[in-house]
Amino acid sequence: MEIFHFSEQPYTEGWDADVDSLRVYMPNKHCDPEIVHTLVNQRLDEWILCDKLGLNILINEHHASATSLSPSTTITAAMLAKVTKNARILNLGIPIGNRPDPIRVAEEIAYIDCVTGGRYDIGFVKGAPYEILPSNANPVGMMERFWEAHDLILKALTSHDGPFNWEGEYFHYRQVNIWPRPFQQPRPNVWIPAGSISSAEEVGRRGHNLAMFLSGPNASKLRDAHYNAAVEAGHPEPTAANYAYLAICGCGETTQEGYDRANEVLGYLRTTSKVHESLMNPPGYMAVPGNVAWLKKNQVRGRAGNHFPAMKRDGTVINIGSGRDWTGSTPIPDLIDANIVFAGTPDEVAEQMAEFSDFSGGVGNIVVMGQGGDLSHEETKANLTAIGEGVLPKLNAG
Amino acid sequence: MGISKDQPDFRQEESVVIQGVEIDLVRLGSGKPVLFLHSVDGIHPDAEPLKGLSQNHEVFAPWHPGFGYSERPEHFKSVDHLALFYLDFLEYFDLQQVIVVGAGFGGWLANEIAIRDDSRIAKIVLIDPLGIKVGGISDRDIADMHSLSQDELAAAAYHNPDNAARDFSNMTDWELWVIARSREAYTFYGWCPYMHNPSLKHWLRRIKVPVQFIWGESDGIVSAEYGRAYAGFIPGSQFQLIAEAGHYPHKEQPEKTLEAIINFIG
């Protein structure tokens, strides 16, 4: 079992500003660069600590948001590529449906892979609907553009006999010939997250690894869908190593200390849906049948209104709560049952992770959100140390 | 298209295939031809201006390719392609001396058609058209409708925002498909550059037929000031404000808007 650590690099100091939306429209006068300087360096130091603890690294990006200060996974990956020695760096991921230049994406992947000597895994993401306006990519046709960019990037990474021509629907290049080429042969592994059965099947058909975020008991269904589609398409039979699952994690010397840390990290889930109504469902982001159902409900908020509808094993839907203050939120044991959270002592966390992997049919990569919300730098280091020194050895003890 | 037209009784359209493109078309009345080019709100045969115009005219109100149930072929990428399609449309029905009435997005489209070929057109009526940029690089000539909440959009688009109220939960699937597809097509054609063609204003001089602008005084999507600047690019065009109306004067002031059209087209 591999464990990756992830943080969105949040700017929680902005979460209390009296704004309708923490994303896209929130004026950056609420952003103090002195504070950002401290925060982003703390987050980078935490990932460097992971490298020493035997943990891997997962990074992402968002745009114009107080929920995430990372504007480019590639920039974060590039910095960590140089200063880490052992950790795998999983870039999850690059929103290639919103990127105007896929060849630049391919070049940067190859360069970072060479810097790391082959420790780089790449991810491609559709991105949330509120990521569209900052790039101004047309939401109509987004997935067609995504898959064309995907095909072009992979061809660029794996073609070595001189320039090729690409005259597609969305992208045009007459002389594609990237330098450097990737370190790993034929290319770094590709991860794609999916939250629906049809998306998981598509990832399987493409032969890529499947990442699942906070999908709780549904993870086993997503895994099965991916597995069957991959086998049916003739790809090698997926193993646990081809699956990753992300959840909030709080680990401490006592159960309560672990719960308290998890509750701070959960600030992420309690604020991520504070998004202006207009950003939730731009026309074209969802297919027409989905929009018909959406209209029928007179729905205004779109899908992020219940961004992660957490469900316990018995089917009970639980409320994660909202806002920075977690007093009175759903008790951590319920969130553990829903696989939204791994929390407690190292023994308890290791047991929860192993049980989850068994329940889901084999998940070989657990991504912990080990920092989030208001969890401080000191608390995060303690959390990661407990995970690296306590959880990881127990998970891999045989 | 894979779309189930599951409530055919509701439909007031006929299907027509023009140069391989299947669209839905509303035809009403008889007399001199009127081509009505709709905006994102679609076609409402029982409302103005279609109802009044059909008293003495043969009204052709096609659903643009991509809107309603009309197909959008893969190679239809921009308003330019819609304009070329409508030149095919005019040839297909062999329409002569057509009065073109375009509202909002449809007004933009009317101009894109006319700059290419206005030989079959007698007069043009533009109701709060989109389509050009007159301000500076940071001026927002056209409201960013995609960044507004439903309430904010209603306040911008209507003189009386209550006129925007619609209860989607009472609509049939057929109606909701039309709304969802029309919003998607509007976004597809108008996303970038936002609801305009940067070159269009330089070609508007090619329109030689009489043109009348009708503008809702309270339009918060495209202001009356924008409208007057727009009219300045078409020599000899007329400009008429409609009081107590927003972006859809034909909805908020249907009689006055119809009267303004009739007075102009004769």
Protein model, in words:
The complex is a heterodimer of chains A (398) and B (266). Chain A is α/β, with parallel strands linked by helices and 398 residues long. Chain A has 13 helices and 13 strands. In chain A, α7 links the parallel β8 and β9 (243-251). Chain A starts with a strand and ends with a helix. The model of chain A is unreliable at 302-307 (pLDDT under 50). Chain B has 266 residues and is an alpha/beta fold. Chain B has helices at 50-53, 79-92, 105-116, 150-157, 173-190, 200-203, 224-231, 249-252, 254-265; strands at residues 14-18, 21-28, 32-37, 57-62, 98-103, 121-127, 211-216, 238-242. Chain B has an eight-stranded mixed β-sheet with strand order 1-2-4-3-5-6-7-8, sandwiched between helices. In chain B, α3 (105-116) links the parallel β5 and β6. The A-B interface holds A 25, 133, 136, 138-141, 276-279, 282-284, 288, 291-292, 295-298, 300 and B 146-150, 152, 167-169, 171, 173, 176-177, 179-181, 183-188, 191-192.
Name the descriptors.
heterodimer; A: 398 residues; alpha/beta; eight-stranded parallel barrel; 13 strands; 39% helix; B: 266 residues; 32% helix
Topology:
The complex is a heterodimer of chains A (398) and B (266).
Chain A (H helix, E strand, L loop, with lengths): L1 E5 L26 H21 L2 E4 L13 H11 L5 E6 L7 H15 L3 E5 L7 H4 L6 H17 L5 E4 L4 E5 L13 E4 L3 H10 L2 E5 L5 H14 L10 E9 L3 H11 L1 H5 L16 H9 L13 E2 L5 E2 L13 H6 L3 E4 L1 H15 L4 E5 L7 H19 L3
Chain B lengths: L13 E5 L2 E8 L3 E6 L12 H4 L3 E6 L16 H14 L5 E6 L1 H12 L4 E7 L22 H8 L15 H18 L9 H4 L7 E6 L7 H8 L6 E5 L6 H4 L1 H12 L1
Parallel strand pairs in B: 3-4, 3-5, 5-6, 6-7, 7-8
Antiparallel strand pairs in B: 1-2, 2-4
